[in-house]
Amino acid sequence: MALAVSTLAALLTVIDVSVVNVAFPSIRRDLGASASGLSWILSGYSIAVGAFLLLAGRLADQKGRRRLFMIGVAVFMVGSLLSGLATGPAWLISARVLQGIGGSILSPASLSMVLPVFPKERRSMVIGIWGASAALGAAIGPSIGAVLIDVLSWRWVFLINVPIGILILAITPRFVHESRDPDATGGFDLIGVPAGTVGVALVLLAVVQGEQWGYLSGPTLGTAAAGLLLVILLFVRSTTHPSPLLDLSLFRIRSFWSAAGGQTFFSTAFIATILFNTLLLQELWGWSVLAAGFGVVPGPALAALMGGPVGSIADRVGHRNLLVVGSLSAACCPAWLLWRVTMDSPYLVTVLPAQMFLGIGVACSFATFSSLGLSEVPPARFGTASASLRMGSSLGMASGVSIAIAVFSSSAASGPLVAFDRAWTFMAVVFVACALFCAVACPGRSPVRPPSPG
């Protein structure tokens, strides 16, 4: 039941990311949002999630993972309610930022609060099931959003989170035990915490707004430079402060840093692939929102079905082998589309096989990155480690969408097929680079036992 609570929350946050894409046209008509306003409805959420992850992970280990999880669910629920009641773009963007803060709080706590309940030999399976819920959220998000918009309105894309959040808050105290780091000192780096939070937010801001501002423009370069300076300050403070925001000792663990690096590569290509699969159906082939929402379901649905079984065999076949196979399978998705798609090619021999390749890739990769990354981490640091892993994923997702859109836009004058082909080439290359990185950097098999906290 504790795992069910955790996976339900993970499902909720992933659905909220994927469901918003199909709601954009309705939001534009109802609220009169500009193109930049629409982009901020998504970007504001992503920046808020990334900016507060490290602080949330440390607080979860220090103050209690269940406590932070419930706070995160409550904040996410309030943000969802305000999003559904929004009367203008500024209100909606502010509410989405609040949602993002809630998502950043509950995300590292949702997995770290249940892992101590299970013995080490079952944790890969647990992470696989937890990761499968995220894949399921990506699968059903667009279709749920399309149905809600068609039957009710775009507001229910957000309002549906409120009763689900109330259910989670009601059952969590009953089925989830509290856990924390017994060695947490209780102090905070009063310089490193704001430097890290603001620095990551500025880097993400430069990434997500680079396509609109211009990647070589003064605002983009200035924002990125300021963010990087603050991140460097965070690293410097983390080497000397007794209670650092960023636990640098984690990066001395090969399984952790290789998983963090590989997940960043994979996320960069994955989120762009999901976006452009939807754009292919709607923009190139002219499918309706409802049809496109169901058209992208098969891949993530396959990943959700495979997640648990794949997680259960990760320790036996080796994390590295699964990650290489998963990355190469995912690369086949954009590569197949690059080879097969025309203006009128049939779905069953183009998009559907590509979706199957992507589903296998996701099933072998996302949960496996988390399983590998946490395999040698002492249980007392699960929250901090989960947040650090998610940070790499957030940076990758923000970068992937921005770069793919920039590649697509720069080729638009040559025709839509050429633009899609170049975007798919970028995604395939990044997936292959991820496979090569994992083959070289990841350890061959999971260690037998984690090191002691000391």
Tell me about this structure.
This protein is mainly α and 454 residues long. The protein folds into 2 domains: 384 residues, Growth Hormone, Chain: A, CATH 1.20.1250; 56 residues. 78% of the residues lie in helices and 0% in strands. The longest helix is centred in the middle third of the chain and has 31 residues. The radius of gyration is 21 Å and the shape is globular. The C terminus is likely disordered.
Summarize the SSE layout with pairings.
Elements lengths: L1 H30 L3 H29 L1 H20 L4 H24 L10 H29 L4 H4 L1 H15 L16 H22 L4 H23 L13 H31 L4 H7 L2 H20 L1 H22 L10 H24 L7 H29 L5 H26 L13
CATH fold topology of the largest domain: Growth Hormone, Chain: A
Tell me, what's the shape?
globular
Radius of gyration: 21 Å
Note poorly predicted spans.
446-454
Helix content: over 70%
List key phrases describing it:
454 residues; mainly alpha; Growth Hormone, Chain: A; 2 domains; 16 helices; 78% helix
Brief account:
The chain has helices at 2-31, 35-63, 65-84, 89-112, 123-151, 156-159, 161-175, 192-213, 218-240, 254-284, 289-295, 298-317, 319-340, 351-374, 382-410, 416-441.
